[in-house]
Structure to design on (318 residues):
């Protein structure tokens, strides 16, 4: 525009691209922030509840009912199940009162969520992208889930809520330089409580496709690349988790008997018993590491645990 030729005064209002009939008016004496918040959270808003429900669905099922999570609307993909999306949005607002926990509980207890991810050629021929939900989508643990799982299995996870902002306790000098590290027991807190500094994202988060802290991300990329395998094999964090898991296993199994150690390691890390072949091979591996009593050392058991942490069966949810 031309500063010397101002146009007509534009009254405060709302986004026309996401507007709906009978929008509230914003008094000229008000900033409009309260009205904007009420407009966004209005039960009659056609987008807010649907967008939120779609993102929860995408997180649980691997892809949303509308697959373009960041482009929900006329220029994005149409919903695969529009009636289901509307029904869930209605329940989210009117039954669950905008609370996420009841919505998530309802979804994870559904038949669709609890289906196995087994591939069936006949079904894939009809619906190769699984838009009709004939199986669960196999997905890799997200970065936060993987990190928290390593800490939980190893017995290190501090589940107490964090009552203070992390950066309040960090000296400024600890945030300078490429070699800056978190200090104290911070690394034992759940990832949701960890501080995120844009140029200091933790290695485990960065390697496993953590969202870009500088932008809003409706759907993360999911890659399977060599640095991820190398991280699980070489990271001091993963090695420490394996060593702590080994100590827990040694305490759990009297006499450090090899086969019970292997079985319990599988139950904790892979969440299933080992097959006869896996039990025989890994028992033979452990027995090669020592001769006679008192059995495998914590270091030997730790190497077994790290191998299981590096397996795809630990990293993926079937």
């Amino acid at each position: 525009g031309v500063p010397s030729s101002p146009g007509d005064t534009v009254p405060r209002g709302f986004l026309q691209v996401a507007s709906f009939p009978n929008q509230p008016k914003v008094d000229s004496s008000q900033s409009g922030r309260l009205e904007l918040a009420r407009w966004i959270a209005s039960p009659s808003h056609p987008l807010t509840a649907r967008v939120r429900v779609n993102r929860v669905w995408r997180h649980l099922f691997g892809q949303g009912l509308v697959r373009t999570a960041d482009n929900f609307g006329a220029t994005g993909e149409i919903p695969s199940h529009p009636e289901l999306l509307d029904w869930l949005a209605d329940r989210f607002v009117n039954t669950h009162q905008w609370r996420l926990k009841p919505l998530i509980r309802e979804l994870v207890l559904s038949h669709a969520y609890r289906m196995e991810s087994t591939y069936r050629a006949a079904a894939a021929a009809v619906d190769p992208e699984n838009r009709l939900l004939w199986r669960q989508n196999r997905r890799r643990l997200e970065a936060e889930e993987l990190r928290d799982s390593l800490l939980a299995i190893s017995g290190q996870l501090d589940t107490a809520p964090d009552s203070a902002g992390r950066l309040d306790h960090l000296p400024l000098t600890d945030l300078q330089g490429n070699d800056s590290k978190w200090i104290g027991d911070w690394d034992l807190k759940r990832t949701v409580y960890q501080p995120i500094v844009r140029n200091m994202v933790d290695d485990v988060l960065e390697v496993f496709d953590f969202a870009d802290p500088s932008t809003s991300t409706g759907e993360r990329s999911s890659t399977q690349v060599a640095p991820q395998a190398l991280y699980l094999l070489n990271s001091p964090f993963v090695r420490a988790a394996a060593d702590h898991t080994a100590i827990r296993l040694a305490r759990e199994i009297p006499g450090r008997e090899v086969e019970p150690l292997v079985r319990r390691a599988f139950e904790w890390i892979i969440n299933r018993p080992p097959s006869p072949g896996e039990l025989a091979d890994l028992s033979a591996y452990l027995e090669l590491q020592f001769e006679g009593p008192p059995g495998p050392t914590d270091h030997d058991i730790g190497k077994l645990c790290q191998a299981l942490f590096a397996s795809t069966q630990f990293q993926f949810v079937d």
In short: The first helix runs from residue 33 to 40. Strands lie at 139-140, 316-317. Residues 48-114 form one domain. The chain has a mean pLDDT of 86.
